[in-house]
Amino acid sequence: MTKISWSRFCFLMTLALVLALAACGGDSSEEDTSTDDASTEESGDEESSDDSTEEGGTASGEVYNYEDFPKTVSNTGEPSGEGTLNIGYSSDTPFEGTLNWAFYNGAPDADMMAHFDEAVLSMNADFQYTNEGAVQYEMNEDDNTVTFTVRDGVKWHDGEPLTIQDYVSSYEIIGHPDYDGVRGSTDGFTLIEGYEEYRNGDADSISGIEIIDDQTAEFTYTELAPSLTAGGFWAYAFPTHYYEGMEVSEMAAAPETRENPIGIGPYKVDSIVAGESISMSKFEDYWRGEPGLSEVTVRVIAPSSIASAVESGDVDIAKSFPTDQYPDVAEMDGVEWLANIDGAYTYIGFKLGSWDAEAGKVDYKPEEMKMGDVELRRAMWHAIDNDAIGERFYNGLRWKATSLITPYHANWHEEVEVPAYDPEEANRILDEAGYEDVDGDGMREDPDGEALSINFASMSGGDIAEPLANYYIQSWRDVGLNVELTNGRLIEFNSFYDMVENDDPEIDIYQGAWGVGSDVDPSGLYGPDAPFNYTRYESEESTDLLTKGNSQEALDVDYRKDIYNQWSELMVEEIPVIPTLYRAFVTPVNERVINYSEDYEWNEDLLWYRVGVEDAE
Question: In what residue span(s) does the Solute-binding protein family domain sit (predicted)?
C-alpha cells in the first residue's frame, strides 16, 4: 500500500497493495497506510504508524464528517513547469529508506517512492486496472493468458528505455529463492504457471512467462482469478539494467536501492538525507508530458511541528497530517483543507501462534497461546467503546469499525453486527469462562487460577498514541484484566513491526493498522501463507472462504460479495482481531498549489505530474 487519489493514485499506486499500516492512531505515518495507489504490495496492504492525544477531550467539541470537505483544490489550471513544491510528511520516525517497490516494508517508504516511481499499471476509482499506464494488458479467458505490452517512449531516470524485461524482472526477483521480502504470496504471483517451481528453486525460470519481444510478454495462469485485475498483477517495473550483475540477496541493501534509486515518474531523485528527506528535480523525458514543477522536496516533519510548518508556508502540502490536530488549525489562513475516506483501518490483534518460516505458513496454536480463548477475546471487545474513541480522540474523522471489508471498498462493504460496548457483558463472559479474581487483588486469574498478565504492544507517534493506549488498557482493567504495555512503554514504528513480525514473546496483543490495497481480497493479511498474517490465525473455514473468494467462480461479483460477507461474519465469531476504527484523512494544501487532488476518480488533468505552484518564477 498508501490511500489513493489521482494525485496520490499515481502516487501510491503510483500500496501492493500491502503495506503496512500500523496506522492505528495517528496519521503520522500512514500511508502509513500508504499504504497508495494500488500498490503497497501486491495485495495492496501496508503497515503504518499509529499516531495517536490525550485522554479525554478533543481540541474542540465539534464532530466532523469527511464528506463535507472538498477532494480537489479550487486552484486548477495549466502549471508553469517551474517552481518548487515543498511536501511535509508527518511522522515521528524516519523512513527506513528501502526505496524499491519489490523490497520495501513500511508505508513511509511507499509514500516516498510514490513521488518518483509510479506504477506501470493504472487503476480507476473502482480499483480495476485500466490501460492508461505505461504498461497495457489484454486478457484471454479462453486460454488463461494475459499479454502485457510496454508503451513506446517510457524511460527510466537514467535515460534507458523501459522494456518488458523490466516488468518481468519484478516477478523473477520477488519469486527468487533468495528473495527474503514479504511479497510474492498472492494470486498475482502464485497463479502463474511454473511460479512455485521457480520460487522453490526447482526451475531456473518461470515457465508461465514468455517474452515475445522487447515490449511484449505473455503470462499464462492456472486460472484467471478476479483479484488479478484488482491489484493482483504486480504494478511496478524493476530497472533490470541498473542492478546488473547483482545477486538478489544483495539488492535491498544496495546503494541503488537506498542512496540512488531511479524510477519512471515525473521527478528524479537528486539527493537523499537518510530517513529525513528526498530532493527531486523534473524529469524532462517523462512519458506523459512535461511535469508541472522544476523541483520537489519531501521532508519528514514531527507531528508536533507539522501544523506550524504549514502555517508558516514552509510546507505546501502536509501528507499524513495528524487528524487529531485538525480542530485546532481548521481556520488556518492561506490553506485549503481536503479530505477523503482512507483505505485503512485500525485493529487490535491477538497473537494466536507463530510463523513457520520453513513451511512458509502460520502455525496456529491457540491452545498454547495466552489469548487462545475466544471468549477472552470477545470479552475484551465488549470492554472497549470505539464510538467514543472516534469522537473523543478524532472529532468524528475516525469512527467505529465493524467489518474487515472496509467502506473504502464501497461496493463490497456491508455492516456486520459486532460485540457492542458493554462492560457488564464483558464481566459476565469472563466469569462464565472461568476468569475469576482468585486472590482478591481486583485482577482476574486464568481458568487454572494462575496469574494473568496480558502484554499489549502499541506504537509511539503523535499526541494521541499514549492516551489512546492508556484508554484501552484502563477499559480492560475495568473488567478485571491486567493489561500492561509491552516493555512498559510505547514502541517506535520500525521496532514495533520487527517485534510483531518476529512473534516476540513479550507481545500477547497489539494495536496496529492496515492500509488496504485495491483488491478487496483479504487473504494477503489473513491467509494461512501470508507473512502479514501477524496474528498467525487460520481455520479450515476461513481458508476455504478466502480461496472461494478469489476463485474463477468469483468472477461473478454477487457470488464474491456473498463469500466475503460470510468471511467477515466468521471473523466476528472467531476474533483473531478486533477492527476498531475506520478513518478519513485530511490534507492541508497551500492556496498557491495548482491541480492537487485527493479524489480517487481518474482525471487526466489532476495526475501527479500536473501539480504545480501558482507563483513560480
Answer: 134-527
C-alpha cell recorded at residue 532: 502479514
Please report whether residue 74 resides in a domain.
no
> What CA–CA distance (Å, rounded) separates 193 from 195?
6
Average confidence score pLDDT of the chain: 89
Average pLDDT over residues 358-364: 95
CA dist 273 and 373 (Å) reads: 47
Which domain CATH number covers 574? Answer: 3.10.105.10
Q: Alpha-carbon distance 283 to 77, whole Å?
A: 21
- Collapse the DSSP code of 413 into the 3-class scheme (helix H, G, I; strand E, B; otherwise coil) and give the result: coil
10 Å Cβ neighbour count for 120?
25
Looking at the domain assignment, is residue 323 inside a domain? no
Instruction: Flag whether 577 is in a domain.
Output: yes
SS3 labels along 300-327: EECHHHHHHHHHCCCCCEEECCCHHHHH
Q: Which residues contact 331 (CB under 8 A, 6 or more apart)?
A: none
State residue 60's pLDDT score: 52
Give CA–CA dist 130/138, Å, rounded: 10
601 exposed, middle or buried (CB, 10 Å; 0-12, 13-18, 19+)?
middle
DSSP run (H or E) holding 573: helix 557-574
Residue 239's pLDDT band (boundaries 50, 70, 90)?
very high
pLDDT(29) > 80: no
pLDDT attached to residue 6? 34
Measured in degrees and rounded to the nearest 5, phi and psi for residue 271 equal -155, 155
Phi, psi for residue 350 in degrees, rounded to 5: -110, 130
Q: DSSP state, 68?
A: G
**Contact 561/568 with Cβ under 8 angstroms?**
no
| Domain count across the chain | 1
Percent of the chain with pLDDT strictly greater than 70: 90
48 pLDDT higher than 70: no
Residue in 439, 442, 324 with CA at minimum distance from that of residue 392:
324
Give the closest residue to 100 by CA, choosing from 259, 219, 271. Answer: 259
Torsion of CA 379, 527, 541, 429, to 10 degrees: 0
Domain with 409 in it: 343-583
Q: Are 118 and 263 in contact (CB under 8 A)?
A: yes
